[in-house]
Amino acid sequence: MDHRWRTSRHGVGWVLLLGLLAPLLLFLGSAPASAGEVPADTECTRSETTACLQARLPTGVEVPGIAITVTTPSGEEVTQVTDEAGITVFAVTEEGQYSVLLDTESFPEGVELRPDAATEITPTLAPGGQSFVTFNVRADDYTGAISWWDSLAQSAASGLRLGLLLALAAVGLSLIYGTTGLSSFSHAEQVTLGGMVAFMMVNWWGIPFLLAAVLTVAFCAFTGYFQDRVMWQPLRRRGLGLIQMLIVTIGLSLAMQYAFQVLVGAGNVRVISASPQTASFGPVTLTYQSFWAMGISVVVLSVVGFALLRTRLGRATRAVSDNPALAAASGIDVDRVIRLVWIIATGLAGLSGIMLALVLNGVKWDSGMQILLLLFAAVTLGGLGTAFGALVGAIVIGLVVELTPIFGLPGDLKYATALLILILLLMVRPQGILGKAERVG
Amino acid sequence: MPEKTSASAATPDTTANPYADPAARKELVRGIEARPGSSKPDPILEVDNIVRNFGGITAVDVDHLEVQRNIITALIGPNGAGKTTFFNLITGFDKPTSAQTLTHRPEAPAHWSFDGKALDNTSASAVSRAGMVRTFQLTKALNRMTVMDNMMLGARGQTGENLLTSWLKPTWRAQEREIEGKAHELLQRFTLYEKRHDYAGSLSGGQRKLLEMARALMTDPQMIMLDEPMAGVNPALTQSLLGHIQGLRDEGVTVLFVEHDMHMVRHISDWVVVMAEGRIVAEGEADVVMADKAVIDAYLGAHHDTDLGDDSLLTDETMANLQDEAAAEEKHRD
Amino acid sequence: MSQDTTAYSADAVEPDTPAPGDERPENRIDRRKTVVLTVLGIAIVAVMWYVATSTDGPMARVFSGVLREAISPQTAAVAIAVVGLNIHFGFTGLLNIGQAGFMLLGAYGFAIALNEGAGLPLAVLVGLGASVAFALLLGVPTLKLRGDYLAIVTISAAEIVRYTGRLSQLTEYTGGSQGLPGSRYRGEFTDLSFFGDGRTTIGPWSYQNTGVDGWWARAVSWAVVLLVVIVVALLVRSPWGRLLRGIREDEDAIRSLGKNVYAVKMQALIIGGGLGALGGMLYVLPSSVQADQMGRQLTFFIWTALLLGGAATIFGPVLGAIIFFSVRILIRGVTNAYVPDSILNTQQTEQFSWVVVGVILMLLVIFRPQGILGNKRELQFNA
Predict the structure, then answer these.
(1) Is residue A207 part of a domain?
(2) Residues A366, A291 share a domain
């Protein structure tokens, strides 16, 4: 019995690994086609002589046709208009301080500058560098171009995208919680790690993106193996309390965040510096990368879900989640299951990190920390420790976050809405949407 | 009969209980009908319609139960009969499914009362304050606190536990002394006095059971509910525990205790309630219940080798021998 | 057979007469440890003092930097927040991972009230009131649930306070991402100073008597630390404090004894959070209210300082805060002085010192959970 289980475990491990990697290989085949379609005026590739200056409107205000003028340090003026995503990119060659001026005359009906916002921003740039300039424009009544329903559809699509990418990380977090009882605060940094490693591989070592992505996922999965090998398993054996382990993850999270800063710096870095190409379906406009990311996420999540439900190893994982002692007594090697859960969870987090870095315009040392709340909210919403609950929770949270601005709340508070929902949910149904009722109070 | 108890510190008046006299108890239980859910002359606890489902499985389904005041009632049944769940439900540590009257059997909502006070939808701490105090199957001694601190936490109505007065020592110093005195007396009675400065985590399993019982007594309960007080305790200490339980009864405390081993029960309980598969299947005096076919079925279903009749272990002679041995060993140690 | 076998013939072994308040054996060990630690501490300070004042070289600068950091008003402010977290985690077992949020809220309440023309006492009350409201908001839904929920909600809520403070729509009150300059609200506090003008130098410490960040701010901050330590010592040594420790050990046991666990946990959350807010007010007095200065990192520093000094002790949090900030300056100073810029530049040294902090936090929890002052037996996590 035990032996049979062991032999099939390897098989399942490979299936899972392939499941994780296969979509990326698909991505590999199709990427060059979309790259060739990038229009010349939005393309900027950084080189030793060229710097990229991206001027844009805030997320949620994707208004095309707004004129933006850049004055170079030597006084040369270039004017471009924003594209469908509310973005325009200038390729510049001089070093020094630039002036980026927003032409408020070019605003269509319903678009206006926020009261405190500047119309001129003066970034400093050098060849090889890049700068992102955001004009604080609002379009509360921007009905001329986009109807409320259209923007609802657009936001819902963005929300679904965010939800699916969060789900990759949340399912892992939930599996770790389910099998070990640990709320891992460093899981968010595992997400950042995915983006960071992909950035380093592509931009420092010149590895082609798709190979880099595969290697990154493998590396992240290895960090999970390594952590469990040298830290979590010995700590479990020593009987360190869960609260103490939780504090250890906080320490790890802090160390990782600053290690990213030491290595990459405190700024935002982009894995792929070219401006992404967009595609539209009805009112919804997203980058090709976003569609790919969502597709990959769906496939990977399906594979994980299938593995959990149908494979011997998946059942073993769920058995350990239900009752580790009983699972151990029935011949399941609990330590091996947990080791594998760490590998898969960190691998998924890494994949999520790469794709988030692509669709959200880069990665920063604290990118993971920004979504930690969302991850925990997703996992809690779905019911702590239930992997499928985490998936449902992540999608709900993704939608809530992206739909918040549509309903008139300041965009900066979209994370607060997620917290509010979490708090309300804890008051009525603390076990989450799909969680089993357990003793409370 | 080993009715003698040590210094009965908490409630010195041993005449408080009219049923301290074995003959009176015999008389009392003879008058009670031996069937599940029978009514008692003076019930301290009355329970109706307690149902608890766990994901489709009914762990507890008790229609009616009364617990007689001032005697020792044992709640027995094979493993998995729902005894501990039932305990958790009536002490407020779990909520009956049948308390959700909107979704579950609205015609028969859960209702239970202690000493005339309804306990439906009451929190665990309120149940305890009503006078019904429990212990746990897995002992909940506060391991990283001393034995004395454990005891002191049991006392009720402490001025020093009120945040507003806690930092003013003069407001609670005298009361603290009083409580310390009471704790010392109880610790002596439960032979833990020497250990009073030790961390509770350093005690043996049996000592922790004793500590938990002593701590519960610090609350001056009307009824004490012991969840498997004998589990994992060595045989000699078991005798001591049984003696303490009888001593409590004689001082007027009502005792309800859970046990799955009938041998233990037989010797000290005045009344036995049998649970199987979440239901109460029999009630009666120990001898009557053990001859009951439903009970034997319930037990044989779970343990094929359970010999319900054999309690040679607990004859008076054996117990006397054990005591002598213990005393001898103690003397030898000194 | 064990000693338990005395059965119910307990009266045969007459125990000694009860002696309330008799000394526990471990108290003696604690006292010896206190003496050793005090002597060691004084020796370390003396050596640093000597090097800083009487020698000339890179270490003199590093040590005088360390000694200055040790008594800075911000160290005192954080120490108070650590004392607050100690009530949460050390005594009650509450996982508050948003202590910086309490600090920030306290600072905002305090500074905004002063800017709006409230007097100093009212402003302090506003800051404390904000933290009480925050504690209630976070505690009501979570304190009946597993500890993790409080952790998740506090860490998130603290971040949201920070985002909200930075909102451009609130610039009028909070100063948005620019923050509120201290000069706008500090006036009334410095006016209270009776230290007069001029400058006083004691060894490596040379500050203006009153000034923006002078002896006055230091004296007040450390006086508040002392006051807080005394009050907290009174609280946790009372039966109320015993109740907190009981809840930390096993909530259900305390519930079974008829105590209102939820209310006591709420009281602990409010008091600890209030101390956080008080720390936040002192933190911003010599500087400014900057939302980003009181983010997650500060929470993590507070945790590290608590575990370093020793959770569930009286002086541990204060000692932990002093050592934490001093050691960080030491690490940074030594790395700056001896590691060439080509390997780590100044900014990277700063970041590197925080990496070390994270690693120290992990190692502390794993290898010395009781910290410097903690009682190993009490805080052995799995006794």
Answers:
(1) yes
(2) yes
- Residue B301: the pLDDT is 61
ipTM for this model:
0.82
| Kind of pairing between the strands at A284-287 and A278-281 | antiparallel
Average confidence (pLDDT) over B29-33 = 84
Q: Yes or no: say if B245 and B5 are a contact pair by the CB < 8 Å rule.
A: no
DSSP secondary structure letter of residue B66: E
Distance from CA of C33 to the nearest CA of B (A): 20
The greatest distance separating any two alpha carbons of chain B, rounded to the nearest whole angstrom, comes to 65
Cα of B231 vs its chain's centroid, Å: 13
- Burial code (b: 16+ CB inside 10 Å, e: under 16) for C40-55 equals eeeeeeeebeebbeee
A134 and A154 inside one domain: no
Domain holding A60, by residue range, is 44-146
User: Which one of A76, A111, A146 terminates a domain?
Assistant: A146
Q: How far apart are CA C312 and CA A14, in angstroms?
A: 48
Among candidates B55, B94, B123 on the partner chain, residue whose Cβ is nearest the Cβ of A439:
B94
Alpha carbons B145 and B39: distance in angstroms, whole number: 43
* CATH number of the CATH domain containing A334: 1.10.3470
CB contact under 8 A, C168 and A116: yes
Q: How far is C207 from chain A (nearest CA, A)?
A: 33
Q: Which domain holds residue B179?
A: 145-202
pLDDT digits (tens, 9 = 90+) for C248-259: 999 999 999 999
Number of domains in chain A: 2
Tens of pLDDT along B294-332? 777 777 665 444 445 444 444 555 556 555 655 555 555
Quick one: which of B69, B79, B63, B16 has its CA closest to B40?
A: B69
Chain C interface disruption, residue of B166, B242, B316, most C CBs within 10 A: B166
- Which helix (H) or strand (E) segment holds residue B48: the answer is strand B43-54
Residue of C nearest to B162 (CA): C240
Please tell me the number of Cα atoms within 13 Å of B238 on its side-chain side. 19
Q: Please tell me the distance in Å from B316's CA to the nearest CA on chain C.
A: 14
Among residues A146, A165, A181, the one where a domain terminates is: A146
Please report whether residue C137 resides in a domain.
yes
Neighbour subunits, C (≥3 Cβ pairs < 8 A): A, B
Model confidence pLDDT, tens digit, residues A243-258: 788 889 988 998 999 9
E-assigned strands of B186-228? 223-227
Q: What is the mean pLDDT of residues A207-216?
A: 92
Q: How many domains does chain B contain in total?
A: 2
Look at the block and give the residue holding tokens 């589990």. Answer: B231
The DSSP result for A376-433, as a single string, is HHHHHHH-TT-HHHHHHHHHHHHHHHHHGGGGT--GGGHHHHHHHHHHHHHHH-TT-S
Helix (H, G, I), strand (E, B) or coil at C9: coil
Chain-chain contact of B247 with C8 (C-beta, under 8 angstroms)? yes
Q: Are A258 and A189 in contact (CB under 8 A)?
A: no
Beta pairing, strands A77-81 & A96-97: unpaired
Q: Where are the beta strands (DSSP E) in A136-262?
A: 137-138
